[in-house]
Amino acid sequence: MADERYTFEQARLRLEEIAVQARKKDTTLEKSLDLLEEGARLALMCTELVDHTDFGDTAQTPVDLEPEVTSDGEPTESEDEEPSTP
How far, in Å, CA of 26 to CA of 61, rounded? Predict the structure, then answer.
């Protein structure tokens, strides 16, 4: 198991499987400890993957959610929209 390589998503899914198995009432103490050990390794792997991920390439430009208004308090028209008629 230590030689296996996981993507973040694969490790996350395996962690979910481990949690389900560990919650079962018929899981032995020995099996629970094995699951705990595997889960700890996977959690560390996920942390390392996140720490080494460059989010700069996928970051989006922040969006201003506040509408622009004119000096009289009316919303300004977007360049993409056609002018509204009163």
Answer: 50
User: pLDDT for 21-72, tens place per residue?
Assistant: 999 999 999 999 999 999 999 999 999 988 887 766 555 545 455 556 667 7
The per-type count for the chain, helices as H runs and strands as E runs, is: 2, 0
Alpha-carbon torsion 39, 40, 43, 45, what sign? negative
Q: What is the DSSP string of 10-43?
A: HHHHHHHHHHHHHH-TT--HHHHHHHHHHHHHHH
Q: Can you tell me whether residue 49 is helix, strand or coil?
A: helix
Q: Using DSSP, state whether 69 is helix, strand or coil.
A: strand
73: left (phi over 0), alpha (psi -120 to 50) or beta: left
